[in-house]
Specification:
Helix content is 33%, strand content 25%. The chain has 463 residues and is of the alpha/beta class. It folds into 3 domains: 201 residues, FAD/NAD(P)-binding domain, CATH 3.50.50; 112 residues, 3-Layer(bba) Sandwich (FAD/NAD(P)-binding domain), CATH 3.50.50.60; 110 residues, Enolase-like, domain 1, CATH 3.30.390.30. Strands 1, 2, 3, 4, 5, 6 and 17 form a 7-stranded mixed beta sheet that branches. Strands 8-15-9-10-11 form a 5-stranded parallel beta sheet. Strands 18-19-22-21-20 form a 5-stranded antiparallel beta sheet, sandwiched between helices. Helix 7 links the parallel strand 9 and strand 10. The N and C termini lie far apart (68 Å). It binds flavin-adenine dinucleotide and nicotinamide-adenine-dinucleotide (NAD). The site of nicotinamide-adenine-dinucleotide has 26 residues, from helix 7, strand 12 and strand 18.
Length: 463
């Protein structure tokens, strides 16, 4: 057998890669992780999940202080924005968490190889001026922003999500291109801090992939909060003149173009897998039409000994999906059985209220067979009502014959936390009756999940 430098070499240290590396090391494998950034943690910790949540959390308080929410609770304040301090706590959160991964690497004896990795052959990777060999290689190179053809991101007037996290001042008018998760989360941050926000979305509704009713209701809530939407509208160009931008908009169905002025434009039209510069061909690999690396159910690629996980493979681009795949791939490499149930991956938009779902949308479930749907509005939930949080609902979709839960969708202030119980119930093959007869603490927002489950049989109590 060849003598390799490492048992496992992971390329990329995002939530997929760092978790795979740590698990591989825990399983007794000699492991290294190649990362070209200055800090570990990938998109998620450096420029994604964590900094966006830091800005969402802080701006939520600012909004509550300015929009009358605090006043309703008997708290009189006149907030003053210290944007530098707000950015400071974001930078601090990123620093602490990325440093935490470096600590975990040391603790678990994962070697960090600093630099950009590219294949020399199926068991050899070049990192800077060094080459390293490994018996198994995991590609976890993640994704980056999809560019809008002809539009240059200067990170000043035209920004991507990274630039939008770091704006040095609140823009007067921010135009967000794309009504997906990034557009709505970062659009919400700057709307709360005082910007006028317009969101231009190509499709006839925001949040593609979410349940139809949830998409419509979310749109209403965001509109009520002051975000303006231009649906069924495509941005075909952006020109920058000094510190202003002019966007060219066209109706999605074709027709006359119009223009829109902005002093900041966020391009958030999706993300694409990172494979440039990896020299996949030298390892005998190629990508599919969407630029992703195809894998089998064990996360193995078409080349023995090479595996792939996270945003670089097909499936939702979510940190927790990447993490779970990281654990599973390491276990498979170690000869165990690592499995991820891709039918039960929750999805959360961290706005106010939060929007979350797991499993099938009502539309997708109906395509597969007969369903029963139970819905419960948050206005009927005692905790939400007491907290002045009336917006939203919980919806449970169950198989009409077996009652097995197929999908759960929530719009509620803590929907991201509430969805965990739905995912766990689905993972255990629960019926709506199982959820309805599970005792939920009172008064909690989660009682709305129990009531929605009761509504599947037409018998909620509080509405
Ligand atoms: P990544 O996190 O992208 O990490 C890949 C790493 O590989 C990068 O650090 C990159 O530098 C490195 N790399 C790439 N090529 C090479 C190479 N050749 N050599 C060496 N290193 C290389 N998801 C959620 O679940 N929840 C959220 O709240 C959330 N918020 C987000 C907010 C924003 C603004 C963005 C942009 C994304 C957000 N996401 C969120 C998505 C989430 O960040 C990704 O799904 C997740 O980071 C994917 O993990 P990954 O390990 O596959 O890749
Ligand atoms: P997205 O795919 O969620 O949304 C992009 C939107 O842009 C789509 O609705 C699309 O129709 C629209 N669009 C595309 N071209 C357009 C054009 N020319 N004009 C107008 N609209 C156009 O992409 P995103 O919001 O950039 O997010 C990227 C990824 O990051 C997502 O896959 C998401 O999973 C991940 N992410 C997750 C979270 C979270 O879990 N909370 C947060 C941020 C990002």
């Amino acid at each position: 057998m060849a003598d390799y430098d490492f048992d496992v070499l992971v390329i990329g240290s995002g939530p997929g890669g760092y978790v795979a590396a740590i698990r591989a090391a825990q399983l007794g494998l000699r492991t290294a992780c190649v990362e070209s950034r200055e800090t570990l943690g990938g998109t998620c910790l450096n420029v994604g999940c964590i900094p966006s949540k830091a800005m969402l959390h802080a701006s939520e308080y600012f909004d509550a202080a300015s929009n009358g929410t605090f006043a309703k609770l008997g708290i009189k304040v006149t907030p003053e924005l210290d944007l530098d301090a707000m950015h400071g706590q974001r930078i601090d959160a990123v620093k602490q968490l990325t440093g935490g991964i470096a600590f975990l690497f040391k603790k678990n004896k994962v070697e960090w190889l600093k630099g950009r990795g590219s294949f020399v052959d199926a068991h050899t990777v070049q990192v800077g001026d060094k080459t390293v060999t490994a018996k198994d290689i995991v590609i976890a190179t993640g994704s980056s922003v999809t560019p809008l053809p002809g539009v240059e991101i200067d990170q000043k007037v035209v920004v991507d999500s990274t630039g939008a996290l770091e704006l040095p001042k609140v823009p007067e008018h921010l135009v967000v291109i794309g009504g997906g998760v990034i557009g709505l989360e970062l659009g919400s941050v700057w709307r709360r801090l005082g910007a006028k926000v317009t969101c231009v979305e190509f499709l006839d509704q925001i949040l593609p992939g979410f349940d139809g009713e949830v998409r419509k209701e979310s749109n209403k809530i965001f509109k009520k909060q002051g975000i303006e939407f231009k649906l069924s509208t495509k941005v075909t160009g952006v020109t920058v003149n000094g510190d202003k931008a002019t966007l060219t908009l066209e109706p999605a169905a074709g027709g006359e173009a119009t223009t829109l002025e902005a002093d900041c434009v966020l391009v958030s039209i999706g993300r694409r897998p990172n494979t440039d510069g990896l020299a996949l061909d030298k390892a005998g690999l190629s990508v599919n039409q969407r630029g992703q690396i195809e894998i089998g159910h064990r996360f193995e690629t078409s080349v023995p000994g090479i595996w792939a996980i996270g945003d670089v493979v097909p499936g939702p681009m979510l940190a927790h999906k990447a993490e779970d795949e990281g654990i599973a791939v390491a276990e498979n490499i170690a000869g165990l059985t690592g499995i991820v149930n891709h039918d039960v991956i929750p999805s959360v938009v961290y706005t106010w209220p939060e929007i979350a779902g797991v499993g099938l949308t009502e539309e997708a479930a109906k395509e597969k067979g007969e369903v029963k749907v139970g819905k419960f509005p948050m206005v009927g939930n005692s905790r939400a009502k007491t907290n002045h949080e009336p917006d939203g609902f919980v919806k449970i979709i169950a198989d009409a014959k077996t009652d097995r839960v197929l999908g759960v969708w929530c719009i509620a202030v803590p929907a991201g936390t509430m969805i965990a119980q739905a995912a766990q119930a689905m993972e255990f093959g629960a019926t709506s009756e199982d959820i309805a007869y599970t005792c939920h603490a009172h008064p909690t927002h989660s009682e709305a999940i129990k009531e929605a489950a009761m509504a599947v049989r037409g018998k909620p109590i509080h509405i």
